[in-house]
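For the sake of transparency, this paper describes our internal protein records without simplification. The tokens are whole numbers drawn from a learned vocabulary of local backbone shapes. One such record is reproduced below, unchanged from the form in which we store it.

. . .
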Amino acid sequence: MMLGLAVLTTALLFGGTTLFAGGVAAWVFNALPADLAGAPIRRAVPWFYLFVIGSAALAAVLIGWHNPVSGAVLAAVAASAVATRQRLKPAINRATDACLKRRFHLLHAGSVSITLAPIGVQATY
């Protein structure tokens, strides 16, 4: 039972991350002018990271009983999401507000890499 819940929670994490990163964000920027698209994304991103933190932490606990290595990987995903939400996203927002395009692009690329890396890791399960 625990293993089944772990797999479902990991699938939820994988699907939710993929949907937000590849679907919702892309759709918002295609549906709205660039100057308007940033505001809803900025409001959604902290909630997205709470979803990643919660689902990765739950999956880590559930799978950790069966496979400690997988549990550690998922715990690392949760920890990276905490760091990204609390440190990197505010820095991205400051760069945006200050019109520091080069800094924004560098920080945003880091954020995207940190967010998408777990998808690759999860896909190897």
